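Researcher: We're teaching a course module on how sequence relates to structure. For the next exercise, students receive a sequence and then see the predicted structure as tokens, so they can try to spot secondary structure elements on their own. Here is the exercise chain.
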Amino acid sequence: MGLPVFDVNMCAEDMDKMATNAMEASNFLKAISHEGRLMILCHLASGEKSVTELEELLSARQAAVSQQLSRLRLEGLVSPRRDGKTIYYRLTDDRPKKIMEVVYDLFCREK
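Model: And here is the predicted structure for the students to work with:
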């Protein structure tokens, strides 16, 4: 997959679309640019998890996990599901998982 070529001869409509896409990408990257949120996304990439499971996996307090889940939810990256008193979270779509695969390849895979 190659990147598109942009030049000074682009029409205004294409430039506007590019600016909109850049803003959306920037917001997405800001949402995942926190160690705790990145770790939550890593765990959710393998499937739905309860808040309690995430607390245990991250060795973090409920308040900290909930704060990061709130931000991810606000950005539309995760969605909750309630089952009685338990709240489960899952990835809303494949975008975070695709990014996590790239991050894993760049920073975690054995070289």
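Model: If you want an answer key for the exercise: The mean pLDDT is 92. The helical segments are 12-32, 35-44, 51-58, 62-74, 95-107.
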